[in-house]
Amino acid sequence: MRGKLSTFSDFANSLFPHEADYLLAIQQFSKPENLKILNLVSYNCKNPQNRLPYDTTIDKRSYSYIKRWITESLAKVDVDLYYQWLLSIEQSVMTDSITPEQEKLLMEEVRQTDPASYNFIRFYQVIQYYRDYLMVRSRIRYYAQVTDFLERFQENYVYAQYQNNEMNRAAERIVRQIAADDDEFLAWETLLKDIYYNEALDGYTRYRAAVRLTILYYTNREFERLMSIYNHLDSQFRTSIFYSKRIMANYYHNRAMMHSKLNELDVAEKYCFLSIRQKNSDYLFYLVSLCGILLRNGKSAKALRLMTDSIHEVKNTNSFHSKIGFASFYIKTLTANNQIEKAVSYGTTFFEGYRKEILEYRWHLYFSSFMQALLRNEKYSRVILLARRYRLVAKEKRLLGKAMYLPVIAWYTSLSEYMEGDISRAKFFDTIAKSGKMLLTNKHRKQKIRNLLNDLAYALPNEVKALTKELGL
Length: 473
Hints:
Layout: H1 6-13, H2 17-26, H3 32-46, H4 60-77, H5 79-94, H6 100-112, H7 120-136, H8 143-152, H9 154-175, H10 182-196, H11 203-219, H12 223-236, H13 245-261, H14 265-275, H15 283-296, H16 300-309, H17 320-336, H18 340-360, H19 363-376, H20 380-389, H21 392-397, H22 408-419, H23 425-439, H24 446-457, H25 461-470
Helix pairs in contact: 2-3, 3-4, 5-7, 7-8, 9-10, 9-11, 10-11, 11-12, 12-13, 13-14, 13-15, 14-15, 15-16, 15-17, 16-17, 17-18, 17-19, 18-19, 19-22, 20-22, 22-23, 24-25
């Protein structure tokens, strides 16, 4: 039986902490009861493990008012809702069906919008279409105001477009890991930081710069520099500058990944739980990240509960990237919970259903998880069969030199060949030791190598102990 105010509690608990901070900053309540409710909303959304009950002696109409006020206050500054409205106006203009009421609202926005507005670029483009619409119909009423807006902010619009094009160039080189040398790294960092910290620019462009800085710092493992960006972003999210639930969830996820890289797993877990507080198109992606953090933090049972509860979400997504990512971590989570037979069964079924997509999109992630389960189930011949049929070791070697490279499949295959008598003990040792020593020149890979050796130790504890000693781990 659900308690009193359960509907309000569910609504309040779905809020993000930064939303609560913003709402407290803008409230001007005259009734003490309203502020009391909002303060408890803020506390509860920030303390999910220790939530306090709402006061049932307060009139229910106050709770209804607070819920409505929160919804309306956030909707007013939601940049995604505003963008949807802009698209509806553009459609009306382009199909010659704009109404007088739409025109009135549009002109109010012309008076209020400036180059620092989040959706300034898109708004400017819509106003260009609208001026053309007015001109060909000899509509004089709004033409002068619209023209004044376009002329006044033309330089700002051109500059914002130019900076976005520069970021596109930067992103291509950063994602392809070309911008790894010091000079180019510093050049792109300077460009992106100048854009992000430029408060005269629109919010869309600035947040794009923050995302690209995230990728740049990740690629070059500059997490302390990334921390300074996120600490600044944290203060910005207590305002309306970048506000939408989608953007805020993205920030929480990105911040979680940063803390995870810094091995601050409890903090990472907190932010990753925030990222999945409301479901959106990235929910599965964020959930998989959370479960990866939980596994690293020794909370495999918690990870399994989360994944089991969300397995139906896989059927509802058209993204093979998300499907394969979820399946890979579900296999890994089942394995971590010693449900080995189930992990192998699920992995086999999923592979049979999505073989083509796995080989095209995320083969390394999938086979790393599936082969781990097969090893734990002592199905060594099947590991060898998969590796040879799909040339996985050769494909993995082509990743050599990239930040993501780890010889997971090569090591799993080598162990399986040794267990099946296909290679000697000396050959097995040589394969692991050579690639291990090469990777250990990078200090950030030590823990990953330890984890990988632990996987092998299930089958060969004595040999792995000797290898660990030889590698200096």
